[in-house]
Fold this sequence. Notes:
Elements lengths: L1 H9 L2 E2 L5 E2 L1 H10 L4 E3 H8 L3 H13 L3 E5 L7 E5 L1 H24 L2 H18 L2
Antiparallel strand pairs: 1-2, 3-5, 4-5
GO molecular function, one term: DNA binding
Organism: Paenibacillus ihbetae
InterPro entries: HTH_MarR-typ, WH-like_DNA-bd_sf, WH_DNA-bd_sf
Amino acid sequence: MILQLRRLERxxxxxxxxxxxxxxxxxxxxxxxxxxxxxxxxLASRLGVTKGAITQVVxxxxxxxxxxxxxxxxxxxxxxxxLSEDGKEAYRxxxxxxxxxYNQLRSQLSEQEIKIFEKSIEILNNMLSK
Length: 130
């Protein structure tokens, strides 16, 4: 299962007009959020990566016209990132992929199995974050 997850994490996927996006690109779009505008430093923190790493991803997303970067109104050293219309479409397409996955999962499990699955994922996530 871990090998399959790793394979999925390396594969670019198509999300609307945005075309093929790497997992790091779509996760960055997801972290920015549909209606959000976020400081670059906060975005790096939210994703658990360095400011240099997030700058590289945002540069790629900006070149694809999926995000816009603007100066912070009160701090000239900071930048704010938000989604463009195409970025918002990619965000919605990514949400739809997740929803479809969860719907497929729910169709194959009982309510009790779903609760056990969710609890297992929570425990695994807590263990991995230590």
